[in-house]
Specification:
The protein is 39% helix and 31% strand. The protein is globular and about 65 Å long. The protein is of the alpha+beta class. The protein has one domain (4-138). It has helices at 17-36, 67-81, 120-138; strands spanning 4-12, 49-53, 56-61, 86-95, 104-111, 115-119.
Length: 139
């Protein structure tokens, strides 16, 4: 059996007192929702490990976490406090065994108005399809 991992590390720094208060409430809400979860549904708020200290919010995925959930969480923060700000994060997918589907990665870019995500597997498949199409057109 293989273990699959999602790994990342990113932060929002220079937090104000109001931002810290808002983050504490939101993170507590997510924690409470996890505690109330009956284990039957998917966790829509899998932010991985989150630490709030020294006026910095740190997202850390050592084994799991959902980069898209982080993007949505951060977008709410940006809308509330930093409408002209942005956030970016790269992430990797890895596996404890050399499985064909076990590796990849991506990146997210977030503003108050938009979420962008690039996934290496999706990009690679598109490149392969484009190449096949060109070869077919040449023959």
């Amino acid at each position: 059996m293989a273990d699959y991992y999602t790994q990342y590390s990113a932060e929002i720094d220079k937090l104000t007192d109001d931002e810290i208060k808002w983050l504490e409430v939101r993170l507590k809400d997510i924690e409470d929702a996890r505690a109330d979860d009956d284990g039957l549904g998917e966790d829509d708020n899998d932010l991985g490990q989150v630490e709030l200290q020294d006026r910095t919010l740190w997202f850390c995925g050592r084994e799991s976490g959902d980069p898209w959930a982080i993007a949505e969480f951060v977008q709410g923060f940006l809308k509330q406090f930093r409408p002209n700000g942005s956030f970016s994060m790269e992430h990797t997918y890895s596996c404890s065994r050399p499985r064909l589907d076990g590796f990849g990665g991506g990146a997210i870019f977030v503003t108050a108005e938009r979420l962008e995500h690039v996934d290496s597997s999706t990009w690679l498949r598109a490149q392969c399809e484009e190449h096949k199409k060109r070869i077919t057109e040449q023959t």
